[in-house]
Amino acid sequence: MRISSSLSHTEPLQILSVPSVPLRRGELRVRVAAIGVNPVDWKMREGGPLGLAQRVVGPRGPRVVGVDFAGTVCELGEGTRGLELGARVVGGTDFSRGQRGSYADEVVVRPDQCAQLPASVGFEDAACLPVAAVTPWMALTEHTKIRAGNRVLVLGASGGVGLFCLALTKLLGATAVGVCSTRNTHLVRDHGAIAIDYTAADALVAAKEHGTYDLILNAVGSDVYPTSACEALLAPNGLIDLVVVRPADYWAVAFHRRVTTVLGRPTKARLEPLVAALAEGKLKPLVAARFSLADAEAAHTLSRAGKVVGKLLLLP
Ligand SMILES: NC(=O)c1ccc[n+]([C@@H]2O[C@H](COP(=O)([O-])OP(=O)(O)OC[C@H]3O[C@@H](n4cnc5c(N)ncnc54)[C@H](OP(=O)(O)O)[C@@H]3O)[C@@H](O)[C@H]2O)c1
After folding, report:
1. Is the CB of 49 inside a 6 Å radius of any atom of ligand 1?
2. CATH code assigned at 49
3. Which residue has its alpha carbon closest to ligand 1 atom 23?
4. Domain assignment of residue 206, given as a range
């Protein structure tokens, strides 16, 4: 199999040929057709809590970054139930289960990490979903129960997470207000949301003019949009969900009941309603750029710059 790996965080990602991992009981192999790129992929290369955890509990051998994948089931392990050979699936790898990452031409996962794709849903659209759509889905449906009449403020509305949060908020019948730069205001409006241009005015002051919020999804960071200022915008039972967590946030997350954090973990149960929304045309991912697997380093350079609008994809 071909993997994209680097020997250390200072070395660029490069293609290596390594033997396929044998399947354990209950596992399946997927021939990968498209891979979604997320900032966590390059953040884990640099270390941080998840990068450290991957080094400690992840699989031995060359480290393969990446989570999101879409492709076709090409081998079933003993006792694997729920999916058949040839099934088209989307999912996320999980290093805590001893699995390699998704920057590869094949991945080994379990059925509860995958949702089946109908023929009408393409691999590229599906590969955008796992981390970037599951994260706001968890905030909207598990951390809160957003429904018609609610209001959601999305800080970082034009990124991978932000655009999905706008679309999913609309899907749930609620109103989204998205904070973005001037160049992306039309895109935010096209997603059925109210746009606030953070370059034109203090975004949180402007957000207050649109009412109070049942959920504030902060996909930029509390250094830019302070949690104390966000709190003043909350509806009585509102929640601030921090997508980006810094050590300075630990106190608020641990002791403040109106502040939490989300760790987007793709599972079959979370992916299935998102795949259904894709199939019904209610969700339409925006792909900013596609790279070959061999050019994964270029995708990371672009993602690190923090200006991506929508999603980056790798194609093996
Ligand atoms: N906890 C989790 O499970 C989880 C899951 C996914 C992502 N994340 C984290 O969440 C963050 C966002 O992820 P992503 O995939 O959405 O990133 P992304 O796609 O790289 O986001 C980039 C976008 O952010 C916008 N932006 C930059 N500064 C902004 C500001 N001050 N206000 C509003 N928008 C701003 C940029 O547009 P402009 O420059 O034009 O404003 C760009 O469109 C990353 O730090 C990522 O690591 C965490």
Report:
1. no
2. 3.90.180.10
3. 159
4. 132-261
